[in-house]
Amino acid sequence: MSSLPVPFALRCRRIRIGEKSNDPASIAAGARIGTEQGADIIKMRLTRKPEDIQVIQSAKKPVIALGGPKADDMLEYFMFIQHCIEVGAKGVAIGRNIVQNEDPADFVAGLNKIIHLNGTAEEAYQVYINHSLT
């Protein structure tokens, strides 16, 4: 048996006819399934709704939130990241929003403010726009 953690990423599609895949209850069911299948870490999409806490609670394992589509409004994106952390995500998996950002180091500094320093989205945005000045 390996001592490496087993990550689990699940794309939630419509579970029942007419049910939206952006429904926190549907995503929570996927998180629960991942745990039941033996995952040690769950990587899931969150919806920006307060009900996202259902996803975290259903997983019963650390949840890493997916970073989402390309963001143009950095303050709004930092608000999404703050939401993820506030509902209980242990981190975020971000790709394109870092590598396609004009100032990736400043962007990561803003993320750090929220994720590791318990800052707000507004504080992260200030770090982002002022980071290269410090």
UniProtKB/TrEMBL annotation:
Recorded superkingdom: Bacteria
InterPro entries, sorted: Aldolase_TIM, DeoC/FbaB/LacD_aldolase, DeoC/FbaB_aldolase
Pfam families: DeoC (PF01791)
GO molecular function, one term: lyase activity
Descriptive protein name: DeoC/LacD aldolase family protein
Lineage, top ranks: Bacteria, Bacillati, Bacillota, Bacilli, Bacillales
